[in-house]
Every structure is written in structure tokens, then in C-alpha cells.
Please model this.
Amino acid sequence: MADRFNEFMKPLKETHFSLSDYVDFPKVIANVEDISINLNLLNYLIGQSDMASAVRRLWDVNPKAFSVLDILIVVRTKDNKKAIDKNGTIHPISDYFNSPEQVVHFLDETGLTEIFKSRQIKNLVDYVFGIEVGLDSNARKNRGGHIMESLVANILTSNGIPFEREVYYTEFPEIVKALGADNKRFDFVIRTPKKIYLIEANFYSGGGSKLNEVARSYSDLALKINAIPGYEFVWITDGTGWKSARNKLEEAFIHISSIYNLSNISSFIGSIEF
Model:
């Protein structure tokens, strides 16, 4: 077991991101396009010396243009963010867009009035494009799990292995009996005439207590699933984050016979019983 574990640890990868995974540009473009008309209307404020008068003129033409002001301070309307005023009162940020006076207050308090007057921003569409790129980069962590799943799916597909994705354990009465009210969902399921493989896939580039809990919970899961004839639990995981949780992962190797990484996943494919 020690040799198998050491061989597993050697090729762990620093990242599973390709260049195309860093920024979801189609999503960025779509988000900007959704509000581009209002942003172009707000461009009228750039370079205005009397901001209050400019706001009033634009308000008279189209008050809805101001509904997108929150994105200029990197806040999405759907998040319903709030701010505290000088008197200690909490206000939804969207409340500042209900009148010209409130809009001017918002611009003054955020510092946007001076930014607009001094033309530090040339075009709000371009400015928000940059904001959306930044917000999308914050979403990389959420994409990480899906990227690992896509990598595994591509490998299985390229090897001609039929599989299902995101399958709830309730499809398998024997598993329900073993796990109880767990509401577990497996990343992949491979069904063959001889065996059903229930697969989890994840990638950890950084350490933390979560890795210890994952190793422990999957060890428990494997013991319950592998005790049922015709079922096998498979764990495909990678990432140098495991170096900080090496001991816990090594313990998991005792209980989980089928642990693979992206470098040796071919061994799992070769072991599938058809």
C-alpha cells in the first residue's frame, strides 16, 4: 500500500486550469451587453462639471439608466447589497437610484463624481468590461470542480467508456439502504453488466481542513458502498493541495482501494469489468 500511495503522490499536478478556463469571456461579453444601453447613456456624465444638473437632465430623459450604477462599484443588483450612512442607518444600494438627488449623493459618496469630472474613465462600457473580467476571475474557484469533472469526462469519452453524470444515490435501492438519508450525488456512474462504479472527482490546489474531512468522509463512504455486492466506489482526485494533508490521504488509501489521479486514471479504465 505504501508503494501505491507514494506513486500516487509523485505526479500530483499544480493546476488543472487551461488558458481558456481563467476567464469566461462569452459570459463577460453577455453581462456587459445586457446593460450596454444604460451604460452608454451614463457616458453622458463623463466630463460634466456640474454633476447635479447633468444627472437631472439625464433623469428627465431616462431614469432607468441609473439602475446599473451599482456595477460601477463592483456590486451586482441581484446581490441586494447594502451600505451604512453617516447616521448609522442601513440602506439598500438600489435605494440610491430612486431620485436625481439620491443619485448625486451616491456619486459623491462613492467618489464617482470626481472620477467622472476628471475623465479618469473614458467609456463606461469598457470600464464595466474590466469589472466583469475581475468578477469572473473571482468565480474561478467555483469553476474548479466543474473543470476537474470535465477533464475526467473527456478521458472517459476518449476511451469509449459510457457514463452518466451527477446521479443521485436514490437510483440505487441498495445504496439508499446503506447510506440512509444522505441525499448523496455522485459525479459519475459507470454501469456494466458486472458492476456499477460510483465515482467522485475533485481537485485541490491548496490545503486546508476541508481536505481532511473529504478524505475521512470518502473513507466512510467507500466502506459502505464496497460492502454491497456489484458496487464499487472510485475516487479520482488530484492537486498539490494533498501534500499538506498527506497523512489523511494515506489513511484513506487503507479504506479505499480505488483512488486515482489524472496521471494514472488509465489504470482505473483498464480495471473496469465489462
Notes: The domain at 2-19+140-271 is CATH 3.40.1350 (Trna Endonuclease; Chain: A, domain 1). The chain has a mean pLDDT of 95. The first strand starts at residue 82 and ends at 84. Residues 38 and 64 are 8 Å apart (CA to CA).
